[in-house]
């Protein structure tokens, strides 16, 4: 495995800090018991505030826009989606040495989805396709004119070219570098999205799905929410699904060959990024991203 990397200096986030922030900015929750949520995610440190609220504090600079984005857009999106999404309750401000906006959202109960539980599930594959169809339809039916560009516009796959080729070289030996390079070249050469921009989740992988009683119940973590090419959301097909359920998912979405190929490229690029950053220090991420890369190569 390659060594993990720290891209930035991360602020210290502990119970004392969260207590100060919550008590001073949101006194209505001052008496609620704080409870850390484990394991800590790669983007946020989360503390429960009693039964319902959960404080989510970005732990690196790349996540600092999420609080306000979700507060603005999730209440608009939620009524149109077939699975639950987080309900933003408030946005906190920097204070006590903590440098960034942070969020309080209503806690969603559930277990993180797993390949063992849902990988072969035809029903889950169809449900996830239905979620993406509903999300993509939101653009043309409900979004005010002029709000789908600018800061919400998704970046093209080609923006990841240099980093992906570096990562391929780094993991050569753990994975087939020739096969990865061939897939990456094909994905970049595939025809681009030539239709109107549609909404995408942007980080649609197993870790951002919740289940209840063995069924999908919620989609979380909309930090990469934006509009553009929906191919990036196809990564769920390679993080969660088996070849059989993946085929059902693709059929339900009606994905053309070019979009599917770009989706495989997104799965490869994001899998490599996570693997080279975290695999050496987190066995769980190592296993998940290894599967993602391998399944993207299979197609």
Describe this structure in words.
The chain is an alpha+beta fold and 299 residues long. The chain has 2 domains: 15-106, Phosphorylase Kinase, domain 1 (2-Layer Sandwich), CATH 3.30.200.20; 111-298, Aminoglycoside phosphotransferase (APH), C-terminal lobe (Aminoglycoside 3'-phosphotransferase, Chain: A, domain 2). 41% of the residues lie in helices and 14% in strands. The chain has 10 helices and 10 strands. The strands form 3 sheets. A 5-stranded antiparallel β-sheet has the order 1-2-3-5-4, with helices on both faces. The protein has a 3-stranded antiparallel β-sheet with strand order 6-8-9, with no helix packed on it. Strands 7-10 form a two-stranded antiparallel sheet. Strand 8 and strand 9 (215-219) form a beta hairpin. Helix 6 (177-189) packs across helix 9. The longest helix is centred in the last third of the chain and has 22 residues, at 257-278. Mean pLDDT is 92; it is low at 1-7.
- Helix count? 10
Q: Give the spatial strand order of the biggest sheet.
A: 1-2-3-5-4
General shape: globular
Mean pLDDT across residues: 92
| Percent in strands | 5-15%
CATH topology description of the largest domain: Aminoglycoside 3'-phosphotransferase, Chain: A, domain 2
CATH architecture descriptor of the largest domain: Alpha-Beta Complex
Low-confidence segments, ≥5 residues, pLDDT <50? 1-7
Annotation, overall tally of beta strands:
10
Secondary-structure element order, N to C: HEEEHEEEHHHHEEEEHHHH
Class computed from helices, strands and strand pairing: alpha+beta
- The total tally of domains equals 2
Helix content: 40-55%
């Amino acid at each position: 495995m390659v060594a993990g990397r720290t891209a930035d200096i991360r602020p210290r986030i502990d119970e004392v800090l969260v207590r100060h922030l919550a008590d001073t900015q949101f006194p209505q929750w001052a008496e609620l018991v704080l409870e850390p949520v484990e394991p800590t995610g790669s983007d946020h440190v989360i503390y429960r505030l009693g039964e319902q609220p959960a404080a989510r504090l970005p732990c690196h600079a790349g996540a600092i826009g999420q609080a306000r984005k979700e507060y603005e857009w999730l209440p608009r999106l939620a009524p149109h989606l077939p699975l639950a999404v987080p309900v933003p309750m408030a946005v906190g401000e920097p204070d006590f040495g903590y440098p960034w906006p942070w969020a309080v959202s209503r806690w969603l109960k559930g277990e993180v989805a797993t390949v063992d539980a849902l990988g072969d599930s035809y029903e889950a594959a169809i449900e996830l396709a239905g979620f993406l169809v509903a999300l993509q339809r939101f653009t043309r039916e409900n979004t005010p004119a002029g709000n789908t560009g600018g800061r919400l516009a998704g970046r093209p796959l080609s923006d990841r070219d240099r980093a992906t080729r570096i990562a391929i070289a780094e993991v050569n030996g753990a994975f087939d570098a020739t096969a990865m390079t061939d897939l990456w070249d094909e994905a970049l050469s595939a025809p681009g999205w030539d239709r109107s921009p549609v909404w995408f989740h942007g980080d649609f992988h197993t870790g951002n799905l919740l289940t209840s009683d063995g069924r999908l119940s919620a989609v979380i973590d909309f930090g990469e929410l934006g509009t553009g090419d929906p191919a990036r959301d196809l990564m769920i097909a390679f993080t969660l699904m088996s070849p059989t359920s993946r085929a059902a998912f693709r059929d339900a979405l009606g994905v053309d060959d070019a979009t599917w190929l770009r989706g495989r490229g997104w799965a490869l690029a994001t899998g490599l990024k996570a693997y080279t950053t975290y695999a050496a220090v987190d066995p769980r991420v190592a296993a998940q991203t290894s599967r993602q890369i391998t399944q993207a190569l299979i197609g």
